[in-house]
Automatic annotation (TrEMBL):
Residue ranges constituting the AAA domain according to the UniProt record: 34-154
Pfam hit, one: DUF4143
Residue ranges of every copy of the DUF4143 domain listed in the record: 218-332
Organism the protein comes from: Segatella sinensis
Protein name in UniProt: AAA family ATPase
PANTHER family linked to this entry: AAA+ ATPASE DOMAIN-CONTAINING PROTEIN, ATPASE
Highest rank taxon of the organism: Bacteria
Length: 389
């Protein structure tokens, strides 16, 4: 019989779970799937979203648990799921699955043994369902969730709700936000702290430092089976990169700076990227997403920049924002003549005085300007690109 304290814990969490704001990813998930995985960086709202799913569900017997609950120190997930099924359970939500040793093997067994159970789990974005003890890639529907878009920030922090605008609508100046007369002051606040939903609770800097420490000192080392000394080198790499970004990576220089073999550097970069600490801008030579040569290293998002980098360069912030917001729905690659390429379009990012010279001979070139409220022709306001998800 399942300990009633687990139900009581869920009930307490549900009482504190609001429904007035729901992340963009909620409507993209096929909640009827038998095995659903939701991964993403720390602090982007994965736990809140699955609790909202429980509150909004009208049918079924649901239970939420966290994989690091002391209950699992002497109970296996397999036995727990067996008991849940016997009690009429239909939907089991397991938060932070990466904190449970042997998670992939046991999830596979639960999936195979209980075809009537809907199993939903969340985990660190470092987590790889193909690399665990059991390959779940043919069974699990996986969803990657990133932090708040500027559109979501407007709703959560300012109470201004608006729809998503497609890239074509953005490029054709069709972004209209009723209730947002002057977007730039709000946009500045978003760049400073608006990527993480928990910023609304205050103490942003302290919370962010905890996110960084837990990600680099716990999540990545746990996944990659790193020693503590290696984890410290990884953190040093993050500090170095944050001071240089956007940065054309030199494997040899980074290896020398942090004292590791140059053969390890590419893996460390990918770990930091998947953990939501950096963004790797690749070229388009591979023809496949995320497999091209790395051309630039960015800090993952402007809010993280504000914590890692004292007085970050405004030009770097602008590029970081554009890349971060656009990569969710589009393949963004480096440009040979400008900053970014998306499909047939080339984008040059700058302030309101940015000229057209660099892309005047480029077909489908666009100038993306900060510090302007509206645009015209090939000149597009930077803040528009935060309305894409």
């Amino acid at each position: 019989m399942i300990d009633n304290k687990l139900y009581e814990y869920m009930a307490e969490l549900l009482k504190r779970t609001p429904l007035d704001f729901i992340r963009y990813k909620y409507d993209e998930i096929n909640w009827n799937g038998r095995l659903i995985g939701i991964v993403g960086p720390r602090g982007v709202g994965k736990s809140t979203m699955i609790l909202q799913r429980i509150k909004l569900s009208k049918e079924g017997h649901h239970l939420y648990v966290s994989a690091d609950n002391i209950y699992f120190s002497n109970h296996s997930l397999i036995d727990f799921a067996d008991e849940f099924i016997k009690e009429g359970g239909t939907h089991l939500y397991i938060d932070e699955i990466h904190k449970y040793a042997g998670w992939s093997r046991e999830l596979k067994q639960i999936y195979d043994m209980h075809p009537s159970l809907n199993l939903i789990f969340t985990g660190s974005s470092v987590l790889d369902i193909k690399k665990g003890e059991a390959d779940l890639s043919r069974r699990a529907l996986m969803y990657m969730m990133q932090g708040l878009s500027f559109r979501e920030y407007l709703q959560l922090f300012e109470g201004i709700k608006t729809r998503v605008f497609s890239l074509d609508e953005i490029l054709n100046h069709q972004v209209e936000i009723p209730g947002l007369e002057h977007p730039l002051p709000v946009f500045r606040a978003y760049l400073d702290h608006g990527y993480y939903p928990f910023a609304i609770e205050g103490d942003f800097m302290q919370r962010m430092l905890q996110v960084i420490d837990q990600t680099v000192e716990v999540d990545i080392p746990q996944y990659a089976d790193m020693k503590a000394s290696t984890a410290r080198k990884l953190k040093r790499m993050l500090v170095i990169l944050s001071g240089l970004a956007p940065y054309k990576p030199s494997v040899e220089n980074l290896a020398t700076e942090i004292g590791v073999s140059k053969n390890n550097v590419p893996d460390y970069l990918v770990y930091l990227e998947r953990a939501g600490m950096i963004g790797l801008l690749r070229d388009d030579t591979s023809g496949m997403r995320n497999l091209g040569k790395v051309e630039k290293v960015y800090v993952d998002n402007p809010s993280l920049m504000s914590v890692l980098t004292p007085n970050p360069n405004i030009g770097n912030i602008r590029e970081t924002f554009f890349y971060n917001q656009m990569r969710e729905k589009q393949d963004v690659t480096s440009s040979r003549v400008s900053d970014f390429t998306i499909g047939d379009y080339t984008f040059e990012i700058g302030g309101k005085k940015k000229g057209k010279k660099q892309i005047e001979d480029v077909k489908n070139g666009r100038i993306v300007k900060d510090d302007i409220e509206t645009g015209h022709g090939i000149i597009i306001p930077l803040w528009y690109f935060g309305m894409n998800y």
